[in-house]
């Protein structure tokens, strides 16, 4: 199975319950094939949780969900040692983080201490429980959601936590036509939910697809374009702290995955442009002038993409001659 075939299968199967979310599934697929994590932001009721669950079902891997509240402790996420009277010994009780796809609902309702328990897992693919370091399953992907309109009782993710997410995706309310299709679909089958999605991949398929993505060619002009975009964000007049080198690596690797799922063996500037916004919008700190002027991270990315000139001819010909 090629990455393009895998993406098509995932998209078609998740459309069982998801209407008008092709771009979301595309970016989920890119993240999965490049060991990335995704932060979903949207108002209640736009199917953020359903999208994550349906995608995990389609991938055919183990899925767990954690509902974050202020009283959730790090041990509730990672696990702890529990005393068993029958044996008179402490036994490791693994937490829900031991899954291939971990959905964290309302991550900003967890305290900073609990949020920090995810840092090692998201970066190192392992957790430390009472001094014992344990590897997480492969693949391992975090999909976290947050509600942008209800701030009471929440804890904003610090910059270090946000930077662990490959993409920040904003889930908007559907168009009128899509919303009508949703009504018709669920009127026809009131039992329809994410459990209705059937697996189309396996963890073994994911490992093979990741190898294919890693072999996708990136011509030197495209690498220069990536650096130009990242540096333009850092040096933008409305940015105090810009994107880290991890952002440049994300544009490189995610660009490879996007090229692969669209049937190409080489990255073009349009791949970089397509993933620039979800890659960069959460990796910058804006200055006071931006706040006063109503400038958003999205405005900064749009300005940068409009001002940085992409390389010409970075296509199959340049890939072959490189």
Description:
The protein is an alpha/beta fold. It folds into 2 domains: 3-205, P-loop containing nucleotide triphosphate hydrolases (Rossmann fold, 3-Layer(aba) Sandwich), CATH 3.40.50.300; 216-321, Magnesium chelatase subunit I, C-Terminal domain (Helicase, Ruva Protein, domain 3). Helices cover 47% and strands 15% of the residues. It contains 14 helices and 11 strands. The chain has helices at residues 3-14, 22-33, 48-59, 74-78, 112-124, 159-163, 176-188, 203-214, 220-234, 245-261, 269-280, 288-293, 297-307, 316-321, and strands spanning 38-41, 63-67, 79-84, 89-94, 101-105, 126-129, 132-135, 141-146, 167-170, 239-241, 285-286. The strands form 4 sheets. The protein has a 5-stranded parallel sheet with strand order 2-5-8-1-9. A two-stranded antiparallel sheet has the order 3-4. A two-stranded antiparallel ribbon has the order 6-7. Helix 10 (245-261) packs across helix 11 (269-280). The longest helix has 17 residues, at 245-261. It is globular and about 70 Å long. The two termini are 27 Å apart. Mean pLDDT is 92; it is low at 316-322. Residues 34-175 form the AAA+ ATPase domain. One of its GO terms (molecular function) is ATP binding.
């Amino acid at each position: 199975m090629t990455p393009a075939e895998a993406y098509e299968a995932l998209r078609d199967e998740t459309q069982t319950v998801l209407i008008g979310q092709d771009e979301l599934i595309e970016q989920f697929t890119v993240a999965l094939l490049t060991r990335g994590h995704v932060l979903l932001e949207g108002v209640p009721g736009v199917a953020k949780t359903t999208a994550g669950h349906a995608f995990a079902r389609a991938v055919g891997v183990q899925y767990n969900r954690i509902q974050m509240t202020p009283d959730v402790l790090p041990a509730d996420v990672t696990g702890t040692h529990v005393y068993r009277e029958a044996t008179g010994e402490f036994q490791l009780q693994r937490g829900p983080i031991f899954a291939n796809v971990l959905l964290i609902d309302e991550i900003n309702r967890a305290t900073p201490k609990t949020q920090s328990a995810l840092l090692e897992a998201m970066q190192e693919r392992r957790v430390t429980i009472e001094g014992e370091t344990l590897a997480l399953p492969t693949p391992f992907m975090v999909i976290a959601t947050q509600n942008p309109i209800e701030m009471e009782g929440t804890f904003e993710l610090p910059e270090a936590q946000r930077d662990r997410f490959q993409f920040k995706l904003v889930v908007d309310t559907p168009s009128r036509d899509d919303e009508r299709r949703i009504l018709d679909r669920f009127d026809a089958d009131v039992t329809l939910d994410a459990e209705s999605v059937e697996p189309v991949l396996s963890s073994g398929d994911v490992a093979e697809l990741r190898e294919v993505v890693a072999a996708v060619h990136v011509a030197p002009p495209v690498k220069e374009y990536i650096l130009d975009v990242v540096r333009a964000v850092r040096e933008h007049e409305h940015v105090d702290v810009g994107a880290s080198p991890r952002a440049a690596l994300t544009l490189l690797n995610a660009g490879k995955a996007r090229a692969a799922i669209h049937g190409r063996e080489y990255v073009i500037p349009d791949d970089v442009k397509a993933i620039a916004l979800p890659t960069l919008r959460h990796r910058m700190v804006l200055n006071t002038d931006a706040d006063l002027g109503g400038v958003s991270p999205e405005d900064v990315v749009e300005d940068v993409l409009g001002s940085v000139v992409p390389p010409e001819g970075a296509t199959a010909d340049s890939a072959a001659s490189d």
